[in-house]
Automatic annotation (TrEMBL):
Keywords: Transferase. It comes from the Bacteria. Residues 51-227 form the N-acetyltransferase domain. This is GNAT family N-acetyltransferase. One of its GO terms (molecular function) is acyltransferase activity, transferring groups other than amino-acyl groups. SUPFAM superfamilies: Acyl-CoA N-acyltransferases (Nat). Gene3D superfamilies: 3.40.630.30. The keyword Transferase applies. It comes from Azospirillum lipoferum. Coiled coil: none annotated.
C-alpha cells in the first residue's frame, strides 16, 4: 500500500476483521471515544497483527509531518525486531476489532546511533532513558484522547520495569510554512506538555530520508521531549 495516500475509509476495509485481543485492557479515554482497547503486541499476538500494524503505521507516517514513504517489508522487519528486543514495546489500540492507533518504543541504548548520540553528547545516561518511537492514530480517531492515553499506558509499562528514570521521544521539525503542511494540521505540543514532557533545547539531532514524492534524501531536524518518571508532574 502506498504510504502517501491515507485510505481513511478504506483502511478498515483493507484487512479482515479479527476477534478482540484476549488480553486487552480498556484504554482510559474520553467516553466520547467509545470503548477502546489496548494490547501489548509480542510473540504470536504481534505475528498475527503485524500486517495490520504495518499498514496503520505506513498510512500515518506517510502524512505530514513525517512524509515518510517507508515500505511494508521494512516495517515488518523493524516491528518483528522490536517485538523480540528485550525491553521493546509495541502497544496497539483497537476500536472493536480494528487497530486504530499504536505506539512503539525501546530502551534508548538499543536505538539508532542518530537517536542515541544527541543524548550522549548532552551527557545523559542512555541506559536510564526509554525512547518512544512513534505514536500514530488514524485520522478518524484523533482528538479523542487515544494518543495521549496510549503514551501513558506505555509509561506505566516502563515504570513496571523499574529501570528507567525518564521517557523521551523525538519530533520532526517542519517549517510553519511547509508547502505540504495541511491547513487543518494541529500540533500536539500542548498535549505532550500536559503529560509532563518538556522540550530539551540542548538535545538536538537530525534524521534523513527521502520525503514521499521527493527524489533526494534530506536531513530533518529533530527536537526531543523528555519526561522524568520520578514523579507524575514531569521534569
Ligand atoms: C499526534 C497524535 C499521535 C495525537 O493523537 P490523538 O489521539 O489525536 O491525541 P489526543 O486526542 O490525545 O490529543 C493530543 C493532541 O493532538 C492534537 N491533534 C492532532 N491532530 C488532531 C486532530 N485531527 N484532532 C484533534 N486533535 C489533534 C491536538 O492538538 C491534541 O491536543 P489538545 O488536546 O491540546 O487539543 C495523532 O494526532 C497523530 O497520529 N498525528 C499524526 C502524526 C503526528 O502528527 N505525530 C506527531 C509527531 S510528534
Amino acid at each position: 500500500m502506498s504510504a502517501g495516500a491515507l485510505p481513511e475509509g478504506g483502511f478498515a476495509a483493507a484487512l479482515p476483521a479479527r476477534p478482540l485481543p484476549p488480553d486487552g485492557r480498556r484504554l482510559q479515554v474520553d467516553t466520547q471515544a467509545g470503548d477502546i482497547w489496548v494490547e501489548r503486541l509480542a510473540g504470536a499476538a504481534l505475528a498475527d497483527r503485524l500486517e495490520e500494524l504495518a499498514v496503520l503505521r505506513l498510512a500515518v507516517l506517510g502524512e505530514f509531518p513525517y512524509l515518510y514513504p517507508g515500505s511494508a517489508a521494512y516495517e515488518e522487519r523493524y516491528l518483528s525486531g522490536l517485538g523480540s528486543l528485550p525491553g521493546g514495546l509495541i502497544l496497539a489500540a483497537f476500536d472493536r476489532s480494528r487497530m486504530v492507533a499504536a505506539v512503539t518504543g525501546a530502551p534508548l541504548d538499543q536505538e539508532l546511533d542518530t537517536l542515541r548520540d544527541p543524548f550522549a553528547h548532552a551527557g545523559r545516561d542512555l541506559r536510564s532513558i526509554f525512547y518512544f518511537g512513534e505514536v500514530v492514530v488514524l485520522p478518524s480517531h484523533r482528538g479523542r484522547g487515544i494518543g495521549t492515553a496510549l503514551l501513558e499506558t506505555g509509561e506505566s509499562h516502563i515504570r513496571e520495569t523499574d529501570r528507567f528514570t525518564s521517557a523521551a521521544f523525538g519530533e520532526i521539525v517542519r517549517s510553519a510554512d511547509h508547502p505540504r503542511r495541511p491547513k487543518t494540521y494541529r500540533t500536539p505540543d500542548a498535549a505532550w506538555r500536559r503529560l509532563g514532557y518538556r522540550l530539551e533545547p540542548e538535545i538536538g539531532g537530525t534524521l534523513s530520508w527521502c520525503d514521499a514524492g521527493d527524489r533526494e534524501e534530506t536531513a530533518k531536524p529533530l527536537r526531543f521531549w523528555v519526561k522524568s518518571l520520578a514523579t507524575d508532574i514531569g521534569a
